[in-house]
């Protein structure tokens, strides 16, 4: 049978028996600190293993502080739990921190709960019945109205066995956390042990970690570390899994570089770091003062407590709102957070819990105030994973797999399934490791073809756009665009000549408005045979604009209508053919400069360049100071 790992949280008012109940269930005293012993209150999170009859179910109990001053620790402790035990002391009943803890648990969407009335031996039967009625009435209509109520006394052991049995039954119907997702463990405790070094503790939200594995500490510049040793409740293990309370002795990162709220991950690419976060917020009904636009707040998520401000887009203040509010927080420092993560908002001063909810977009932007932004956030909130994948691809155009996982907080399995389906439907595409939509491909194609068409119109003499320039002119990744261009070439929509890309239907041609004059230039070059004038002389005589000079020259050469005799001279191709045959008829296999000069009857000014051109065209080759025919013209 597959092993299952769960974390149970103990919540409730201070001195309502959370630590004693934990000890009764686990035989472990979770108050470790000297100050906790002296003051008889929990200050830091306490942890203990709970052994059940089902040996394949591994359970950790987190004992959270009940005092209002330690709400941060309480939120950090319950953020990663699968089941909560809410304690209410029989001799006191519902108290302020009972309510605040319940509010926080509700806002964190912790659905599995048990209500345990503790210290039942301290009251008589009649008072116990009254407390029980009060508790049931208090929870009626609340988030935990269907949760079982169990009576215990931790000192005498009354009800403890029944509670254990109820826990075991409830966990059988509780889904396990995702061990196949990318590893994520928020740190809620950091300390140093003599002879051991730096140790961090936390509940593994997702994934697994093995002894000896390397991982990274976020946020900020990813700091690489190594798991030297892993313990689960003081027992050394080779591997820890999602849902387990875990301590890791790490190397590679100093104690000074580790803080509560940091997150351990194996691959930073899968996780978002952000200080601007879009939220779906539910305010509590009984907050004391209105929450104003840009009011300072404390944002709690996982083990984080970060200061920031709240930004509304459809109001300037609010005190009572039954509906969810779509808004944003802008934090003073970035945190690691995913879509779907739960959060708690508390007022910075005077301190009180304002509300909570879930992250609809971990990578928010600075939007305009107004209905348009609310509609955008509503779409993000209501979007199915499939629609969110397509929406992100459409907005970002080209996204790598790891970036999709990070931005959308989807598991690899879920994302791969969605991408496969969308590609099969023809809505998404994968090219060179990037994903996009078929609509983006159409946009890229339309933009590229329009660009080429405009280029052909402006530069009709050119073969096309230089390929490297074409790749740089688009915001599509170079390797993706090159793949698309090659595809369109194979489909005969584009063509390539050397390094130039053009539309398949395009062929370079002389501009109609200059065609007659350009034909005159060609005619005059032919008339002058070998002893041509400088190229620019012909162009200026015909009044051809300077901006066309170079293109016209390249056009004649690329179409083999002329050959470059020197940098400043062109010779007509027919002239070269005639003169090559003339030379061939008047020389043997080997011939000298003198023989060539006599055959052509030209000066040395033209003789040497013409012979070098014939060498370049492989008609002839130099042998010492003479020439030899390689290929005689017909």
Automatic annotation (TrEMBL):
<dbReference type="InterPro" id="IPR015191">
    <property type="entry name" value="SelB_WHD4"/>
</dbReference>
<dbReference type="Pfam" id="PF03144">
    <property type="entry name" value="GTP_EFTU_D2"/>
</dbReference>
<keyword id="KW-0648">Protein biosynthesis</keyword>
<dbReference type="GO" id="GO:0003746">
    <property type="term" value="F:translation elongation factor activity"/>
</dbReference>
<dbReference type="InterPro" id="IPR004535">
    <property type="entry name" value="Transl_elong_SelB"/>
</dbReference>
<dbReference type="InterPro" id="IPR057335">
    <property type="entry name" value="Beta-barrel_SelB"/>
</dbReference>
<dbReference type="Pfam" id="PF09107">
    <property type="entry name" value="WHD_3rd_SelB"/>
</dbReference>
<comment type="function">
    <text>Translation factor necessary for the incorporation of selenocysteine into proteins. It probably replaces EF-Tu for the insertion of selenocysteine directed by the UGA codon. SelB binds GTP and GDP.</text>
</comment>
<keyword id="KW-0963">Cytoplasm</keyword>
<keyword id="KW-0547">Nucleotide-binding</keyword>
<keyword id="KW-0251">Elongation factor</keyword>
<dbReference type="InterPro" id="IPR004161">
    <property type="entry name" value="EFTu-like_2"/>
</dbReference>
<protein>
    <recommendedName>
        <fullName>Selenocysteine-specific elongation factor</fullName>
    </recommendedName>
</protein>
<dbReference type="Pfam" id="PF00009">
    <property type="entry name" value="GTP_EFTU"/>
</dbReference>
<dbReference type="InterPro" id="IPR005225">
    <property type="entry name" value="Small_GTP-bd"/>
</dbReference>
<dbReference type="Pfam" id="PF09106">
    <property type="entry name" value="WHD_2nd_SelB"/>
</dbReference>
<dbReference type="InterPro" id="IPR009001">
    <property type="entry name" value="Transl_elong_EF1A/Init_IF2_C"/>
</dbReference>
<dbReference type="InterPro" id="IPR027417">
    <property type="entry name" value="P-loop_NTPase"/>
</dbReference>
<dbReference type="Pfam" id="PF25461">
    <property type="entry name" value="Beta-barrel_SelB"/>
</dbReference>
<dbReference type="InterPro" id="IPR036390">
    <property type="entry name" value="WH_DNA-bd_sf"/>
</dbReference>
<dbReference type="InterPro" id="IPR036388">
    <property type="entry name" value="WH-like_DNA-bd_sf"/>
</dbReference>
<dbReference type="InterPro" id="IPR050055">
    <property type="entry name" value="EF-Tu_GTPase"/>
</dbReference>
<dbReference type="InterPro" id="IPR000795">
    <property type="entry name" value="T_Tr_GTP-bd_dom"/>
</dbReference>
<dbReference type="InterPro" id="IPR015190">
    <property type="entry name" value="Elong_fac_SelB-wing-hlx_typ-2"/>
</dbReference>
<feature type="domain" description="Tr-type G">
    <location>
        <begin position="3"/>
        <end position="176"/>
    </location>
</feature>
<dbReference type="InterPro" id="IPR009000">
    <property type="entry name" value="Transl_B-barrel_sf"/>
</dbReference>
<keyword id="KW-0342">GTP-binding</keyword>
């Amino acid at each position: 049978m597959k092993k299952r790992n769960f974390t149970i949280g103990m919540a409730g008012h201070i001195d309502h028996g959370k630590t004693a109940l934990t000890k009764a269930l686990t035989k472990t005293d979770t108050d470790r600190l000297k100050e906790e012993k002296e003051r008889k209150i929990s200050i830091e999170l306490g942890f203990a293993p709970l052994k059940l009859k089902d040996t394949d179910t591994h359970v950790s109990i987190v004992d959270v502080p009940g005092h209002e001053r330690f709400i941060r620790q309480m939120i950090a402790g319950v953020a990663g739990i699968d089941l909560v035990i809410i304690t209410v002391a029989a001799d006191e009943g519902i108290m302020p921190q009972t309510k605040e803890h319940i509010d926080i648990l509700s806002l964190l969407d912790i659905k599995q709960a048990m209500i345990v009335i503790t210290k039942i031996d301290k009251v008589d039967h009649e008072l116990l019945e009254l407390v029980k009625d009060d508790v049931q009435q208090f929870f009626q209509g609340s988030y935990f109205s269907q949760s079982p109520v169990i009576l215990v006394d931790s000192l005498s052991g009354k009800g403890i066995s029944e509670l254990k049995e109820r826990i075991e039954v409830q966990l059988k119907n509780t889904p396990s956390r995702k061990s196949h997702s990318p590893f994520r463990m928020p740190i809620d405790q950091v300390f140093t042990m003599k002879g051991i070094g730096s140790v961090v503790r936390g509940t593994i939200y997702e994934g697994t970690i093995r002894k000896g594995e390397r991982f990274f500490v976020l946020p900020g510049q990813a700091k690489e570390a190594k798991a030297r040793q892993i313990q689960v409740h003081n027992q050394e293990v080779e591997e820890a899994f999602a849902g387990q309370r875990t301590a890791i002795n790490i190397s590679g990162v100093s104690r000074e570089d580790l803080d509560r709220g940091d997150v351990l991950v194996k691959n930073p690419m899968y996780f978002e770091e952000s200080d601007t976060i879009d939220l779906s917020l539910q305010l509590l009904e009984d907050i004391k003062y209105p929450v104003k636009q840009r009011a300072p707040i404390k944002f709690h998520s996982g083990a984080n407590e970060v200061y920031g401000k709240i930004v509304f887009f459809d109001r300037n203040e609010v005190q009572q709102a039954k509906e969810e509010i779509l808004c944003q927080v802008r934090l003073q420092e970035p945190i690691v957070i995913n879509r779907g993560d739960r959060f708690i908002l508390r007022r910075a001063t005077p301190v009180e819990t304002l509300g909570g909810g879930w992250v609809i977009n971990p990578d928010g932007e600075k939007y305009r105030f107004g209905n348009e932004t609310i509609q955008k956030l509503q779409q993000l909130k209501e979007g199915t994973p499939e629609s969110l994948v397509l929406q992100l691809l459409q907005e970002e155009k080209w996204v790598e797999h790891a970036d999709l996982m990070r931005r959308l907080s989807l598991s690899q399995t879920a994302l791969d399934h969605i991408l496969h389906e969308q590609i099969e439907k023809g809505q998404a595409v994968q090219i060179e490791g990037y994903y996009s939509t078929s609509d983006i491909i159409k946009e890229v194609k339309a933009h590229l073809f329009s660009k080429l068409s405009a280029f052909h119109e402006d530069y009709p003499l050119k073969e096309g756009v230089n390929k490297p320039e074409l790749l740089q002119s688009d915001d599509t990744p170079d390797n993706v665009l090159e793949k698309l261009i090659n595809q369109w070439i194979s489909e005969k929509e584009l063509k390539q000549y050397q390094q130039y890309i053009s539309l398949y239907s395009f062929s370079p041609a002389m501009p109609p408005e200059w065609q007659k004059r350009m034909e005159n230039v060609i005619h005059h070059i032919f008339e002058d045979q070998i002893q041509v004038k400088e190229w620019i002389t012909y162009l200026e005589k015909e009044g051809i604009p300077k901006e066309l000079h170079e293109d016209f020259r390249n056009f004649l050469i690329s179409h083999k209508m002329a050959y470059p005799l020197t940098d400043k001279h062109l010779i007509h191709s027919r002239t070269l053919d005639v003169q090559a045959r003339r030379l061939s008829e008047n020389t043997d296999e080997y011939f000298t400069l003198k023989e060539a000069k006599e055959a052509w009857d030209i000066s040395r000014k033209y003789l040497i360049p013409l012979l070098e051109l014939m060498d370049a065209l492989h008609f002839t080759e130099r042998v010492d100071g003479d020439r030899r025919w390689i290929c005689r013209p017909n």
